[in-house]
Model the fold of this input.
Amino acid sequence: MTQSNHPAIVITDYRDRILTDLSLESSQSDTYLLMLLKGIGDYNKGIETLTQLAGRCTLIFHGSKCHTDAMIAASLGVNSGIELMPDSQLDESLSELAAYHFYTRVPHGGIEPFYSLQQAYSPSRRLSPQVMYGRFPTPEEWQQHLIKPDPCAVCPAFRICSGYFSKQSDKEDCRRLMTDVLEGIEYSKGGGD
Amino acid sequence: MPNLLLTGKCVRNCPYCFAEKHMDQASPRDILSWENLIYVSDFLLGSGKNNISLLGGEPLLHPDLPAMARYMVRRGFHVNIFTSGICAPSMREKLRELADALTPDALNLVVNYNHPSLSGNSEQEAIEAFFSELRNVISLSCNVYKTGFDYSYLADAICKYGLRHTVRIGLSHPLPTRNNACIAPDRLEMAKMAQELTDALPMFDSNGITISMDCGFPLCSFTDEQLGKLYRHNAAGMRFRCASAVDITPDLRIANCFPLAEIQSFSLLDFDDYNSLKDGLTELTENLFNLYGGIYPECNECIFRLKDLCSGGCLGHAINRNLKTAAP
Done:
C-alpha cells in the first residue's frame, strides 16, 4: 500500500485488491479517502460494503469490470470512478458511464474523472482527466499540441483534455468521448432542464 | 407493479405457460445486465415507485439474482421474486443468506407451485428443498388452467413447510395464436371454475390462508352467493378488471403483459417516467378492449363492463376469438 497526500484527501493505492477484501471498519472516519482498487469483487458482499461507504470515500476502479463497478457504486450513493490512462480503451460503455454521471436525475454519487472535470471546469482553464488527483496540465504539456499542430489542436474538447489522449491510435474515439463529457459539463453548468 | 424479466430462459415446461413465445424468442445471452438494472431502478425510483417483481423465464437462472435483489432492496425497493423454486443448492444458500440479511417485508419469494403430478421426482425434490430452506419468505402462486383444479395441494404445502399463508390465484392467460392450456371462454367452463374456487374457500379459511385473485377473472362467471363468499374471505383480493403490470425485458422492451407483448412493445428508453409509460399502455389496452371486446360477444353490452367493474376477462381470449372469426 502506498499513500500520497492531496490538500483535501488521502489517496490510497490498493491497486491489486478488491473492495470486499478490505477491512474498512478501522479506517479513520474523519479522513476522506480516494482509493484505487481493482474492483468491487463479489457483488453480493460488496453491495453491503458500499452501503456503508456513502460520503466517506471515492472508489476508483481499474479492473475489467470497472465501468459496471463504478456505476453500481455511484447508484448506491458512493463517489466512484475509473482510472483513465492515456491508452485506455475509450469505448461506448465509457460514454454511457459519463452520461450516467451527468444526466441521471435521481441522487447518486459522482463518477470520476467526470465529477472533477465538472467541478474544476472554467472556459479559461486547461484541464485533463488527471484533475481527479488534483493535477492540472502544465503549459509545456498542452502548448506543444497547438504549436505542431496535431489533431488535438482542433478538437472541440481540447480544453478539458489538453492532449491527454494524443497517443490514441483512433482520435475519433477520444474526440467523441471528451466532446460528450464537455456537453455534459455544459449541461450541468446550465442547470439542465 | 412493474415486472422486470431477468432472463428468458426457464427450467420448466408448464402446459399453461403464457411467457412461452417470449422465451422461444429469447437469446441464451439475453439476461439482464447490471447497467440495465441500474437504469430501471433509477427510472422507477425517479417516478416514486419502490415495488418491483423480478421474474423470467426463471429468474434464479440469472447468476447475479441474489446480488441484484440485494441491490434493489438496498436502494429501497420491496422485491418480489416469482420463481419455480427449482435451482441449484448454491443458489438456495445465497437466497437464504439474503433473506437473513433483510427485514421480513423487504423480500417475498413467490413460488409458482404446480400440482406435484405435473412435476417429475427430481423437480419436486428441488421445490421441496426450496420450501424447507426458505420457508419464512415464501408465498405460493398458482395458475388455474383447467376445470377440475385441485387447490388442496397448496394448503398442504403451506402447512407442511410453514410458508407464508397467502396464495396468488391466477387464471391462465391465452396467448394469441398459441395453444397454451387455459380455461376456454365458455360460460359453463368459467362457471365451473368459479364454483371450484369458491368451494375451496372453507379449506383455505380453516388453515388461515388468504387468497387473492390476479387479473382475467370474468365477474359474470360468479354467482352473487359466490361473490359474497369471496368478499368475506378477502374483499381486497377480488379482481375482475384488467390491471396488468408492466413487463420490462432484459433489453428494456416493455409491454403491458405477456399476452399483449406482440401487439404492444415499446422501449423503456422512450419514456421519461413510469407514470407516463403506464398511462400510455393503459390507453392502448383500453383501445384494444374497444376494438376486440371481452371474452364473450355480449361483453360489449354488459352493465358490469360499462360500470368498469369488470374488463370482460383476459383480452387474449377476445383477440383469439376475433382472429378465428377473421380466418378464412
Notes: Strands of chain B lie at 3-5, 51-55, 78-83, 107-112, 138-144, 166-171, 210-213, 247-248, 253-255, 266-267. The longest strand of chain B covers residues 138-144. Chain B touches chain A through 19 residues (CB under 8 Å).
